[in-house]
Amino acid sequence: xxxxxxxxxxxxxxxxxxxxxxxxxxxxxxxxxxxxxxxxxxxxxxxxxxxxxxxxxxxxxxxxxxxxxxxxxxxxxxxxxxxxxxxxxxxxxxxxxxxxxxxxxxxxxxxxxxxxxxxxxxxxxxxxxxxxxxxxxxxxxxxxxxxxxxxxxxxxxxxxxxxxxxxxxxxxxxxxxxxxxxxxxxxxxxxxxxxxxxxxxxxxxxxxxxxxxxxxxxxxxxxxxxxxxxxxxxxxxxxxxxxxxxxxxxxxxxxxxxxxxxxxxxxxxxxxxxxxxxxxxxxxxxxxxxxx
Amino acid sequence: xxxxxxxxxxxxxxxxxxxxxxxxxxxxxxxxxxxxxxxxxxxxxxxxxxxxxxxxxxxxxxxxxxxxxxxxxxxxxxxxxxxxxxxxxxxxxxxxxxxxxxxxxxxxxxxxxxxxxxxxxxxxxxxxxxxxxxxxxxxxxxxxxxxxxxxxxxxxxxxxxxxxxxxxxxxxxxxxxxxxxxxxxxxxxxxxxxxxxxxxxxxxxxxxxxxxxxxxxxxxxxxxxxxxxxxxxxxxxxxxxxxxxxxxxxxxxxxxxxxxxxxxxxxxxxxxxxxxxxxxxxxxxxxxxxxxxxxxxxxxxxxxxxxxxxxxxxxxxxxxxxxxxxxxxxxxxxxxxxxxxxxxxxxxxxxxxxxxxxxxxxxxxxxxxxxxxxxxxxxxxxxxxxxxxxxxxxxxxxxxxxxxxxxxxxxxxxxxxxxxxxxxxxxxxxxxxxxxxxxxxxxxxxxxxxxxxxxxxxxxxxxxxxxxxxxxxxxxxxxxxxxxxxxx
Lengths: 292, 488
Description:
CATH topology of the largest domain in chain B: MetI-like fold
Radius of gyration of chain A: 20 Å
Largest sheet of chain A: 6 strands, mixed
Strand order of the largest sheet of chain A: 2-1-3-10-4-11
Largest interface: A-B, 60 and 53 residues
Distance between the termini of chain A: 37 Å
Number of strands of chain A: 11
CATH architecture of the largest domain in chain B: Orthogonal Bundle
Oligomer: heterodimer
Order of helices and strands of chain A: HHEHEHEHEEHEHHEHEHEEHHHEH
């Protein structure tokens, strides 16, 4: 668990808060959307915090949050200055914080994919097009990931609506939100839901780690590619941490080459990103009504 | 028998609940629900207290938030109780207590963020409303005689302190202690939305299937609540109250500009914010009502009615477990343990656990609400039967239960049940956050989509629905001439 963070909670008090906030102004705080099991996230981002702290020479702290929206709100409220967002949460955050920028994305995030998975009891065979699965899908139960997820909700919902011209609620007999990709996998594996949609990287990593019971479920369809996860930083970090801070953070992230840390994402490395890279996500979000 | 109004009312509510069952979504959708339940049970018997170093800190935070929140709530509630006779005050109190702690926390999270103030206010605000109501009821029921005996020209404050308070003191103390227990539960579940209390770790452990870790947290929580009479001592209270604020943690600093932005921009309906026409505004309003509010209200009401009757049935089944009119001390002790566990576990946590085990439907919510509330009412009714003296030759077994005891306690049973109606509805709404399609589901969706205008409108609707049920509950209790007891 994020011990550093907890010890700080313990040390503080309501009364001495003002003193604490002054001391904290120097700490560079970041968060990440809770898209996987928390233990994994804390391990991964504690590593990133230590790495950034070394590279940047400032105190870096990772704050775990319980929902995608909480990550966006913390970024918007300037309680965190940097965040590892999904495609959709990044677009939401950058709309709310003028001047904020997508600075780096994973190599794999340029062409991200959502996998549709099915429990074996459904007897559904993999197909090349979603359309050809139409009759098999109708009336089954289906789970998305988090309500604010790109690969777990936005893109699968977009392709379902685009292909069948109806809302998921009318296509399926039950539609749920599992909260994260690991849980989507577990729920479909256990048969709680017949079908689900999840981040392909989570699937591949769990598969490689031997955590998937391939007799119980399989991938039945893969979406076309789209841009996804990215590091987004607030526009006003230089005022707080000095000239050129944003560039130093960007460089540190792009230079990250610790194989263990990259493996924990899992990404093969980070490459430059820009706000414009996520235009397709914005359009899709507006298309299905998640974004105004 | 049907000529009794209480019996008629019972059958009407039973019929409504049965009708609700016809339309409700009740199912077990997991493939191996019992296997998971078994694993959970194994987790509780093989607890792992050393899973995370954060566990003790989380317990400390849970206590600190509860103490600070309840203390603030009781102080404000006491002041409000003094002016409770004014209608605007009553309306204000009804409003703030109709919004659940978790909703308050979700609201404050948007502008205070992860700051201790979020958790403290989320408990203190609704509790102020509850304390105001109950304290004023206690004042009203106080014996007016001592006041009449005071010499003329006694000041109002002296009269209040010397003639009113002494008579009310014991009841106020009992109720405040009970609320502290509720505060511990509220504080624990605040972790589910990200505050550093027990719920934070409980959610993580459960969602990852770490049942031994989760079992350890539940056991510690039960011990904390069961031992309250031992460590909540009048002499120690001032110490706790003074110390608690120092254990809240420091969280992240508040940025005050966010507060202003939230009230002047975020919660203003989008069409007004963007300067669109009145037609756009009514289209926006219509959309929220038709697609979110109405389905949410429908599911909330259906689930509440089923859960209310299930609670009633469970209370009636459970009270003999602790009644001295049945069985020996062994069975009574195990009955007490069962009821303590049932009522100490917050509904939200019970529902969360059952949803993990049985899959999404209204069933886990009904069972959770019935277990928790049935545990409370069963305990109160069971205790009441212990003061009943039966004739030495009174029938035994089922006849004793159905002909001697139930008729004697039925009226207070109904009073408790209708008293908790509003509480059950408040919980039902909040369970939507877990994925059951009640109002909380739509509030959570709006927040996840960063649409706070919609979220606030839906929270307001939830509050109004609650106030309506509260009023209806009071009306029925008056109609049936049921004695209401403030300490429930």
